[in-house]
Amino acid sequence: MSETTVYLDNAATTRISDSVLDAMLPWIKEGYGNASSIYSLGRRSAIALSKARAACAEVLGCKTREIFFTSGGTESDNTAVFSAARAGREQGKLHIITSAIEHHAILEPLKRLEREGFRVTRLPVYDDGIVRTADLEAALTPETALVTIMAANNEIGTIQPTAELGAICAEHGVLFHTDAVQAFGSIPLDLRSTDMMSVSGHKLHAPKGVGLLYVKETVPLHPYILGGAQQSGKRAGTENIAGIVGLAQAMSDAAEGMEAKNAKLLPLRERLISELSALPGTRLNGSREHRLASNVNFSFAGHEGETLVLKLDLQGIAVSSGSACASGSLDPSHVLTALGLSHDEARSSVRITMSKYTEPGDIDALISALAGIIK
Ligand code: PLP
To answer: The whole model's pTM is what?
Structure first.
């Protein structure tokens, strides 16, 4: 296996940026105090924690008490779903609405809630991968406790109309959560009609194992992790100061660099789409316009996605495929089948995701490698 020289799987994870690493290092080396300790080493950590919280709040345009640091997107999503379900159960509301293409960090908690008596409506996304506001309006009932719809999809990069969806929920007095793990730092996010929002550090050039959940102050948060009084008693566990400092730096960098990143990536995305469309048997998956500048997802008829990924890896190029190799069988992605793709079409997909570090030469290398393999 050759070294990976072209990294195009940034929806899976991203490399840590120098600014994030520099911000974190003092809190890994000397500043190891527990933020709950009252001596100065601990107090320094507590100050770093509150500065990081203030930086995240400034980026999101919210209050510091509306931010809860977590271990990442999965915990933030689980917390949002179970907290809203608990509040719903207390009011006799046992209905939740989501989309068919959410991340498993949303879908699996919802499956558990179904087993516990909740009814879950999964809104369709049609062939463009977009939820329709009319479908949401039709699905809402007086029993709806929560609507959770991701801001941008991790496989096909489609962007949902979260401002409109959130406004409809607000009109009906229903909680609205959005998983912004892929969207934050790539599209503007409006918190006005969002009650809860998940963010993950490792998609933003911060390390794995840190993220946050924004919770509007008027929304009750039922803790998901128990065992300590940290974070106003709402999320137990000694705070990961270095990770949180890194997350704050990454969020500030992402917000500041969003326009420049999109200006750089949009032409690269368009080039990829037009050149890959010209290869035999290819099709773009998901909306062409309403998608992240960083995402391209193609099916290659007659080719197994996993095989293409492995062949590209031999040439030092990292991308991913739309199938998960679980227990020896290649399960097609639920996202691609929700678009109406057959199992074979879904299994033949490849996801290419860029970051601020992607250069035109990376795209040249990928296009020529793929063209060689396909021909
Ligand atoms: N939600 C989305 C949309 C994601 O893409 C991911 C990660 O792939 C997650 C949630 C989970 O985040 P984490 O890896 O930080 O737990």
So the answer is: 0.97
